[in-house]
Write a structure and sequence with these properties.
With 327 residues, the protein is an alpha/beta fold. The protein is built from 13 helices and 8 strands.
Length: 327
């Protein structure tokens, strides 16, 4: 009789079982993730945002302040940076900056009232002055010390108006491609003043047009994630249009310009040279109008458009860090 082959050693059998189990798990995950991407991409998008927040060492919180339940990220230790996003954006736009800044600073990044996950009141004003007033309620609710206040675009105008109204709460003010200043007209401002709103879209093509307006090199986003963002934008059309129309009024788009002489803290202006939304000439208006600021810093970045916080994250974080620690 032919002798039967000797059985595999125990360790080999255990290894094969583990490999088979891992293969089954991997296949199940692939099916689950593939199905989620196709049929529930909002779940994957939320998971990706949670991953970015974890990498940035920030946690999401909420607080009732004034007429708004504010949603915000907070993390890190050190001097407090309060960071405000721009029009039709949300707190998530700052996550890459938070990852770079939270090792050295205590960062607080809210969804401005009406945007993101913060509450919205039908019919209420969400213009610059109204948002600056709400910001005071948020600062009071969190009992914040004097902060380094950082605003991008529309958030810059809100930050500047707030700093002019409440200088006791602002140690330093950083404005990034800020709205609210005089600047040379460009295609965007001419279209905006004529009532054309590029921030409304109904499909992927519209989303691509909006992002190409703000980015020199638009980020690559999976198609089904874009569909989630398109659906969200479509749901918010009325609010986006109403707020856009409000911000087209001279009292709004010059809100910061008219208060520059009331800024009494160190001020940083940071712009992309090729900003197609708010022309870099606004930086001259900022410098010329700061008659009472004890220190004025300015930086111009090449190779980006309106979103240096995303397109040039390391350079932006380095400039903000230097400014925040220099006073």
């Amino acid at each position: 009789m032919t002798p039967s082959p000797s059985p595999r050693p125990l360790w080999q059998r255990m290894l094969l079982r583990r490999l088979k189990f891992l293969a089954v798990v991997a296949a199940a995950l692939a099916v689950l993730l593939g199905g989620s991407y196709l049929f529930a991409p909002q779940w994957l998008l939320r998971a990706d945002i949670a991953r970015q927040a974890m990498a940035a060492h920030v946690e999401k919180h909420s607080v009732q302040a004034g007429d708004t339940t504010w949603s915000y990220y907070e993390g890190g230790q050190g001097p407090t940076l309060l960071m405000l996003h721009g029009f039709a954006a949300s707190k998530e736009v700052w996550l890459e900056q938070a990852k770079l800044l939270s090792p050295h600073f205590h960062v607080i990044i809210p969804d401005l009232p009406g945007w993101g996950e913060s509450t919205r009141i039908d019919g209420a004003s969400y213009g610059i002055e109204a948002q600056a007033a709400r910001l005071q309620a948020f600062v009071d609710a969190l009992r914040l010390p004097r902060v380094v206040l950082i605003g991008h675009s529309m958030g810059g105008a809100i930050a500047g108006v707030y700093a002019a109204e409440h200088p006791e709460h602002v140690a330093e003010l950083a404005l990034i491609d800020s709205f609210g200043l005089k600047s040379n007209e460009n295609d965007f401002t001419r279209a905006a003043l004529a009532g054309k709103n590029p921030f409304l879209y109904d499909d992927r093509a519209g989303f691509e047009r909006a992002t190409s307006l703000a980015f020199k090199q638009a980020p690559s986003i999976p198609g089904r994630f874009v569909d989630v963002l398109v659906k969200r934008n479509r749901k918010d059309h009325a609010f986006i249009q109403r707020t856009f129309d409000e911000l087209r009024q001279p009292a709004q788009y010059l809100a910061l310009q008219d208060r520059l002489d009331r800024l009494t803290m160190p001020v940083l202006g940071l712009w992309c040279h090729d900003d197609r939304i708010i022309d870099v000439s606004a930086l001259d208006s900022l410098r010329n109008g700061l008659t009472h600021a004890p220190d004025i810093s300015s930086s111009v970045l090449a190779g980006c458009n309106h979103m240096p916080i995303v397109e040039k994250p390391e350079e932006t974080a380095r400039i903000l860090t230097g400014f925040a620690l220099s006073h």
